[in-house]
Design a protein that fits this description.
Length: about 325
């Protein structure tokens, strides 16, 4: 019986499988083949053996989809998540639930690889897919360097290493050019990133978002938090009094929205000086290559003088004398 047929027969028994795994009574995992096509270490430090080059890939995290695009592997995707952004090159792909995980829908697609995110997806799902003989790779995305490493690794898996390496080199070059601009002498304004104007969800030490803020010439005030996703209280923000507030606030008036939910913030320097900037959620809330666009937008909004284009002298300018 083919592996595909075996998986289809497995569908009615998925609930039993999940129950047995949760109870800790699953059978021993099968031993991998002697000579796998590729052995790698994923973002959870798991050793993953791929028996063959992947041809049918399901992404269960928007960040994994972005990395597949950057690595040149979109043509191998057979499904993405319902949370993925509506982009033209993803049109027509089936969308499945990842939170909660629709395991039956994934198995029905007969994938030979599932791509997940180490920052989004439940690590325990690895046991479910291992029991079904479907490899799952958790891509690292906690930092920008982890994102670049994930693009390279995905290129290696998909047989598109040349395109993936070219993308990594291009992104690194653009990042270095941006950092060179914002490294100009002067005070770096303090800043806080808020996911929403309602609840003060932010990013802590080690987060890729703090990397982006530093590239943009900002000093993030949440870098002292050990947790990667702190929730800030109003008094803490008032005490640190950021010069700039950045968020994924959408098209609404961010200042009014912030003061509506945090009225005591009216004394913040960022509020008084109208230094509030919104970045598209698709560019910043999902770790991946589009984050560079977010960093560039931040830098241009906060340091517009660094991006002014000076017209070259033609030699025909008139001279005046006293």
């Amino acid at each position: 019986m083919s592996q595909s047929a075996m998986r289809r027969r497995t569908l009615p028994a998925l609930s039993i499988l999940v129950c047995s795994l949760l109870c800790g009574c699953a059978s021993e995992p099968r031993k991998p083949a002697e000579t796998p096509f590729m052995t790698l270490t994923d973002g959870l430090e798991r050793t993953v053996n791929l028996q063959n080059p992947p041809q049918r890939v399901v992404s269960i995290a928007p960040g994994a989809t972005h990395i597949m695009r950057a690595a040149g592997g979109l043509s191998s995707l057979v499904a993405i998540t319902s949370a993925d952004y509506r982009e033209q090159d993803l049109a027509g792909l089936p969308r499945i639930s990842a939170l909660p995980l629709d395991l039956e829908a994934i198995v029905a697609l007969d994938p030979d690889l599932v791509l997940a995110s180490d920052q989004v997806n439940d690590p325990s799902h690895a046991d479910l897919f291992d029991a079904l003989d479907i490899p799952i790779v958790y891509l690292g995305s906690a930092s920008w360097e982890a994102v670049l490493a994930s693009i390279r690794m995905t290129g290696d898996m998909m047989g598109t290493s040349e395109q993936a390496t070219s993308m990594v080199d291009s992104l690194a070059k653009k990042r270095d050019e941006l950092m060179a601009k914002t490294a100009a002498p002067g005070v770096r304004p303090t800043a806080v990133f808020l996911i929403s104007p309602i609840q003060s969800y932010s990013f802590g030490a080690g987060s890729y978002v703090l990397d982006l803020m530093r590239w943009a010439g900002l000093d993030p005030i949440t870098s002292s938090f050990d947790t990667p996703a702190p929730v800030l209280d109003d008094e803490w923000v008032l005490m640190h009094n950021p010069d700039v507030i950045i968020g994924s606030f959408g098209e609404d008036d961010a200042k009014d929205a912030l003061l509506n939910h945090h009225p005591t913030w009216q004394s913040l320097d960022a509020i008084r000086n109208d230094r509030i900037f919104s970045i598209p959620a698709a560019d910043i809330l999902t770790p991946g290559p589009r984050n560079l666009q977010a960093a560039s937008q931040m830098a241009r909004s906060i340091h517009p003088h660094l991006f002014e284009v000076v017209a070259p002298r033609t030699g025909n300018e008139s001279l005046t004398t006293k």
